[in-house]
């Protein structure tokens, strides 16, 4: 009920706000229309039409496009090439705002061809600024499509021009855009660097709207780094500027970002309130692209609140909208959340379906935007036609009434009488219509509800049967996995002072320990497969048997070489050279231990090794390379891992673990467990036996998790020599 009240207040406020804003915009547009009617010169008409286009570009994009096309027709008629380029450029921005990305790219490229042709014929470089602006526009569109490499290429082309021209504002805009690419790729250090460079370029008296964008970006980077207080400071700075400038798209983005921050800090009701503020504005300005991000935020927040059904509703809306506009990132996020939610609801079929969709989003998606636009225009045309017919009939009736009144000499008296009767009749008919409609609606709703309840009962009975069958299969898979995987006893036979800390998220797990003993070496690994539950367990079986073959049968003992062969084996097993969309694989920390010499060789894929040596902690990082998938080979990069050799003293210990341990959300502020806490626990318990250290980790992890859901499987190995 509380959320509904908040939404109602927001709607009332926005209705007032929009009315005031509309009246001011209406005055400016009416003035331009009057100016257009008087103007005889075609070139000046184009300028006025362009002004009207920009006045309407955010609030009513379809009307804005109508005036832009009028300008284009005149420019083509009089062969005004420069105006054609300017109009194509504007239409590129307009279609990008409407999230019709391929159409936007087409218009920008048309404009670019014209400007480059004009620049070739002119030696004064007067068109360089326009070319740079188009490069930035093309970069922005490619970011929206998720094509980050293409976006970066366009931005650097723009930056080269702005640097030659010594264009401060242009450089600042391009720095912001490059920072956005780094932000999308989670390179926080570079994202901060480019945004602060943009801020420095603008100076104290620089463009306020640009500063608002920079503050929003800085807030986003600090939010990703879990520096919430800094994130909120910059988000509020951006919101203040957006309100001052009445920047509707900026306002919506600020409300979305603050909503994300509040949700992350478990202030769910306030987060929902901010999301709905964002959606109201995004609906008004037809910003489908950012609306998909807002819908994902709503879905995630309702999931955290435990309202899984409402979360599914908003995430499905996001999926539909993302498919419509080709927003790949939002589609991925929505599919991932849906997979998690269905897993919580024990609907494993939907969970697996959505997880597979999340892992294999296709590059090109169906877009219904054009058909929808045509339907809206047809509906608008029919509506306007009917309104004109009604207006003509009304005028005819009024003329007839006046004529009769004049003939009877009682014009004034009958006029008021007729108005009174019409008013009463309209009021009565309206009341009857409302009551009848409500009755009809309730009757239909009750019928539909009864039908749906019967249908749900049938579905639930069928699902119960299927769920029991699935649960039996999963339990059987668990017994197989437990039989195959090594245990604590296996490890203690070689290293009495050691432990395996294992905590599966679901019944079966995608994380597992792997151990093997040869004549000279002992091999130990902590492995984290793609996904968890049934998909992760299937991948763990593949990894387990491949390692047994590589080390046990083929006698390969070098850790780096083992990982390279494991990468080849997974690619071959999953036929990833044929299925280019499959990037399934695993992360691993692998050690070859010579117990007699106290020597360790370590190699890792995305996983570190913690070495406790002479009472001090050292972290040896693994390579940022994948095991499985085509992410690197498709770009012509070779997979080659690094060996790290360690000489251990008596009493030294080593630890390696999956990211399910460090990424677990919990604690008082809902933060990640993180590597630093792992190191602190080890240092705080130097003198304690390893079996006791395992219990400490288990207790600390569960206490940290509290009421939060376990996010991923956890595996950790500790060995003292």
Break the fold down into its secondary structure elements and pairings.
Elements: H1 2-38, H2 42-56, H3 61-78, H4 81-97, H5 101-120, H6 128-145, H7 148-165, H8 168-184, H9 188-202, H10 208-224, H11 228-245, H12 248-264, H13 268-285, H14 288-304, H15 308-325, H16 328-344, H17 348-359, H18 369-408, H19 411-484, H20 488-494, E1 498-503, E2 511-517, E3 522-529, H21 533-553, H22 559-573, E4 586-594, E5 599-605, E6 609-613, E7 616-620, E8 644-647, E9 653-657, H23 659-662, E10 665-666, E11 671-672, H24 674-684, H25 690-705, E12 714-720
Antiparallel strand pairs: 1-12, 2-3, 3-4, 4-5, 5-8, 6-7, 6-9, 9-12, 10-11
Secondary-structure class: alpha+beta
Total count of strands: 12
What is the typical, i.e. mean, pLDDT? Answer: 81
Largest sheet: 5 strands, antiparallel
Helix content: 55-70%
Low-confidence blocks of residues: 1-24, 362-406
CATH class of the domain at 487-720 reads Alpha Beta
- Placed side by side, the strands forming the largest sheet appear as 1-12-9-6-7
